[in-house]
Amino acid sequence: MLQVNPKMLPRLAEIEKDLLLRRKRAQEEHWLGKVEGIDSTLAFLRAKQVEAARLAERTVANLGLPRPRPESTGA
User: Fold this and answer.
1) Would you say 6 and 55 are in contact if contact means Cβ atoms under 8 Å apart?
2) Which of 46, 50, 54, 72 has the fewest CB atoms within 10 Å around its CB?
3) Tell me, what DSSP letter sits at residue 8?
4) 75 pLDDT above the threshold of 60
5) Which residue from 36, 40, 39, 45 is spatially nearest to 14, judged by alpha carbons?
6) pLDDT in tens, 3-49
7) Under a CB-based contact definition with an 8 Å cutoff, are residues 24 and 34 in contact?
């Protein structure tokens, strides 16, 4: 599954704007199949925008560097 980098949110907004313009033209020309295809693409795009925004809000946990365990001195 493709995971979108939150840095791509501005580009996704540009793509959405372009799709909306293409959808408007398709409606004006009565290209119903094209409108349906663009609607599907818009739904997918918007889901990716929501996912990317959610990822941008997530904080990163600092787990530190792994260290070897101290050797125990057994009896």
Assistant:
1) yes
2) 72
3) G
4) no
5) 45
6) 788 899 999 999 999 999 999 999 999 999 999 999 999 999 999 99
7) no
Domain boundaries, the chain: 6-56
- 34: amino acid identity, one letter: K
Contacts of 15 (CB under 8 A, 6+ apart): 45
Tell me the two tokens of residue 63: 């787990």
Q: What is the pLDDT of residue 74?
A: 60
User: In terms of DSSP H, where are the helices of the chain?
Assistant: 9-28, 32-57
| Tokens representing residue 13 in the block | 């907004």
Residues 49 and 8 sit within 8 Å (Cβ to Cβ):
no
